[in-house]
Write a structure and sequence with these properties.
heterodimer; A: 112 residues; mainly beta; six-stranded mixed β-sheet; five-stranded antiparallel β-sheet; B: 118 residues; four-stranded antiparallel β-sheet
């Protein structure tokens, strides 16, 4: 049972445009959500997170939106840059669980 | 700056061999995790540990065991390697959450070990 789903295995975006990566979850107990970025042959690096008490969190070019009623979150990257080409994983956790549940990942390619 | 290191970046082993993957973190984190990453399947949790000598099974523990004798070190053991254990193995650590500080759930990952079992 996949509790966190990223339904798009890949996404291609032109440099300078907005990249939108989506993630859906099924467990209503999740209250903390994260996005990780992963380059080939490297470990994932933490990008941005959001607590369920918020519906938006911004950090530079990256913004994460949370829609609790739809159990959906999205990551917006504006403007997209070639260095953003990577696999992006969303992850979720519930308070006190101390472990994360990851989605399958979306491979983002930024075209010049 | 959190540092998680893994003993090998690339490893080639034969079927039936016993394999040890080592992970060390330098941030005094209580929690440590082992994942494997396979295309289309994301990161799947194998085992995790809340404290020294404590371990919990994750989603796919079969064929693996772990050891945590010291707080900073978490080892993954493949008792008898099989070809279906060819994968990228990732170690992570995080601090223990004691309440509403959800930010402490953030896990920090090592560079990964790409294991090939022939």
């Amino acid at each position: 049972d996949q509790q966190v789903k990223q339904n798009s295995p890949s996404l291609s975006v032109q440099e300078g445009r907005i990249s939108i990566l989506n993630c859906d979850y099924t467990n209503s107990m999740f209250d903390y959500f994260l996005w990780y970025k992963k380059y080939p042959a490297e470990g994932p690096t933490f990008l941005i997170s959001i607590s369920s008490i918020k519906d938006k969190n911004e950090d530079g070019r990256f913004t994460v939106f949370l829609n609790k009623s739809a159990k959906h979150l999205s990551l917006h990257i504006v403007p997209s840059q070639p260095g953003d080409s990577a696999v992006y994983f969303c992850a979720a956790s519930s308070q006190g669980a101390q472990k994360l549940v990851f989605g399958q990942g979306t491979r983002l390619t930024i075209n010049p | 700056d959190v540092k998680v290191t893994q003993s090998s970046r690339y490893l080639v082993k034969r079927t039936g061999e016993k394999v040890f993957l080592e992970c060390v973190q330098d941030m005094d984190h209580e929690n440590m995790f082992w994942y494997r990453q396979d295309p289309g399947l994301g990161l799947r949790l194998i085992y995790f540990s809340y404290d020294v000598k404590m371990k919990e099974k994750g989603d796919i523990p079969e064929g693996y065991s772990v050891s945590r004798e010291k707080k900073e070190r978490f080892s993954l053991i493949l008792e008898s390697a099989s070809t279906n254990q060819t994968s990228m193995y990732l170690c992570a650590s995080s601090s223990r959450t004691g309440g509403i500080l959800a930010e402490q759930e953030t896990q920090y990952f090592g560079p990964g070990t790409r294991l090939l079992v022939l």
